[in-house]
Specification:
CATH class of one domain: Alpha Beta
CATH topology of one domain: Enolase-like, domain 1
Distance between the termini: 47 Å
Order of helices and strands: EHEHEEEHHHHHHEEHEEEEEEEHHH
Number of strands: 14
Length: 264
């Protein structure tokens, strides 16, 4: 690991002010610190957000569930508020990584990193969430722009994410056994905005599966989801699974997500 300056501000304003020059925000550190240890990433300064209390917390507000960016996966999984409003989101958080990752990793850190196999991006897209920063609000549909890429501007700080509360929601995840990242993860919701289906792990970035959305809009059943044949265009292929395998698993995981949503 290269040498770096470390700062731990107590407010979001102080954190933004500290991010000057070759500096990066440090959230849970579950991705960034590992990259730094392997010398795959280097920054002159890390601005630790762990001391910023205003970036943590969960509350219901105007038909939405608002979760602070520095809220850990474990806190989301254990929250009675989340389990009451969007149980699928609590279940998603509770199945991320292992206990250490869940107790250190954060919502904001996960979506800012935009790992193509991370779970939270599927929830953001699958629920039509809004990402709040210290400068603006960004619609979930516009937030993820590519492989490890987002719409965030240099120095922009995620402060919270607001999730509309759906009538139904479910998440189906086929895990990579060692990392517990998603080989294919599908988040499905049915709400005021219609049916949304978001897929993670299958392409370079999370995406919506329009064909499955259309099928579920007609019949919100596992059979309707499973009947959709997903093409292999742009689908990942590696030692863990071919493009054809991942494409087939999208429909299977969507069906499981619908079954979970209907069971509640």
């Amino acid at each position: 690991m290269y040498t770096f300056d470390y700062q731990r501000p107590a407010s979001a304003a102080a954190a933004a002010a500290a991010l000057q020059g070759d500096a990066r925000y440090l959230a849970g550190g579950q991705s960034l610190v590992q990259s730094m240890k392997m010398r795959l990433s280097a920054s002159g300064r890390l601005v630790d957000l762990g001391g910023v209390a205003e970036l943590k917390g969960i509350r219901s507000e105007g038909g939405k569930l608002v979760i602070g960016a520095m809220t850990t996966h474990a806190a989301v999984a254990a929250s009675a508020e989340v389990r009451r409003a969007i149980p699928a989101l609590a279940e998603l958080a509770g199945d991320i990584g292992d206990p250490m990752v869940r107790n250190m990793g954060t919502l904001g850190g996960s979506i800012a990193n935009a790992d193509p196999a991370a779970c939270y991006p599927a929830a953001v897209l699958g629920l039509g969430a809004t990402v709040h920063t210290n400068k603006r609000t960004i619609a979930g549909d516009s937030f993820f722009t590519g492989l490890f890429e987002t719409a965030l501007e240099p120095g922009e700080l995620i402060t919270a994410v607001s999730f509309p509360v759906p009538a139904k929601a479910g998440y189906g995840k086929h895990k990579q056994p060692a990392s517990r990242f998603a080989l294919v993860g599908v988040f499905v919701s049915q709400g005021a905005g219609g049916v949304r289906v978001a897929v993670t792990g299958a392409k370079a970035s999370v995406f919506r599966a329009k064909a499955i959305e259309d099928a579920l809009a007609k019949s919100f059943t596992p059979d309707a989801a499973k009947a959709v044949q997903v093409g292999t265009d742009g689908i990942n292929s590696d030692l863990h699974g071919s493009a054809a395998y991942r494409a087939a698993m999208i429909s299977v995981m969507a069906a499981r997500a619908v079954a979970a949503a209907n069971a509640r």
